[in-house]
Design brief:
Distance between the termini: 20 Å
Largest sheet: 4 strands, antiparallel
Strand order of the largest sheet: 4-5-6-7
Number of strands: 19
Strand content: 35-45%
Structural class: mainly beta
Length: 203
Amino acid sequence: WVGTQGDGLYCYDSADGMWNGIGKHFTTENGLVSNRIHALLESRDGTIWVGAEGNLNCLCRFDGKAFEAILTPHGLISRLFEDCHGRIWMGGWRGSGLSCYDAGQFVTYTMEDGLPGNRIQSIVEDDAGNLWVGTQWGLCYFDGKRFITYGKERGLTSLHHQWSTKDTTGQLWFGTHGGLYHYDGVHFQWLTTADGLPSNSIT
């Protein structure tokens, strides 16, 4: 699956099909909420989730037959994540906070609930099921009840987060505009061009 900035969504059965231009093309005429695609996720049940740019209907899901538009609290969704319970989390850089979609209902969290910023840049889950959310104003940890911010007071000097992932050993990695952070469950390690990175802007 390939999302574009204005030409909708493409689906290819193989790498050869992609290079040869043999695939399916979906646009708003096929049910997409927008042709400007910012996020894609395949959930464990095989559903394709599409985060787009538009009004408050910038999320849709594809069950293999048709797209279904879902009304959200966001005007743009650039991050989608499925947690261990099958819930879909989302956010974007326009600043509408972090939302959880579960059983057809949304719960949205903002700075009033403890987020360090409302512009969501990254979402990842640790092995214990806790959510780590990167924003343009810092990183936070969510245990399902409260947000705990990890910022300069904890040694994280680069606050503008861009991306995050969990490796095969369960350790977390956070890309920022000021380098890469590695978290082993206890300590953060800050890596920059001084350590061999080709750039400090990790996207």
